[in-house]
Amino acid sequence: MVQAALTALQENRAQFIVTTDNVDTTRTALVPVNLSNGRRVIVVSEVSISEMKKLEKDVLIESAEVGILLLACGLLISWWLSNVLIRPIRFISSEIAAMASRKDLSASINVHSSDEIGSMAEELRHLLLDLRQVMQQVFSDATKNQTITSSLS
Known about the structure:
The chain is an alpha+beta fold. The chain has helices at about 1-10, 50-100, 115-150; strands spanning about 15-20, 25-35, 40-50. It has a 3-stranded antiparallel sheet with strand order 1-2-3. Strand 1 and strand 2 (about 25-35) form a beta hairpin. The longest helix is centred in the middle third of the chain and has 54 residues, at about 50-100.
């Protein structure tokens, strides 16, 4: 180890030594460091390879757990958002289909929401009101025309 420390100092780069005994394999890192007072020292760090493998396995398991948790949260948020967005759209669509099948423009669509879907429902309500007014005007004009035509004959 002394030779590796001297090499680390001379070459100014880390040196690594792997030693094995009857219990475990150890990796030793010898890193040269320049201190602020100008002195050079060697920082020595020993790590058990089996301990590193155990830590690596633990990190892998924790990463998988976090990934599964994030996936579950993402699916839950997606499901919630789809219900929040799709339910009012389906309601509006079914109301429009019902009005079309009954040929009844007197029905109204009531959606109580302050988001874009609520805004769309409000604009659709205004469109229906305008359409009713146009239809009433057409009916009124047709009635007047029939009255005039009847009086002329």
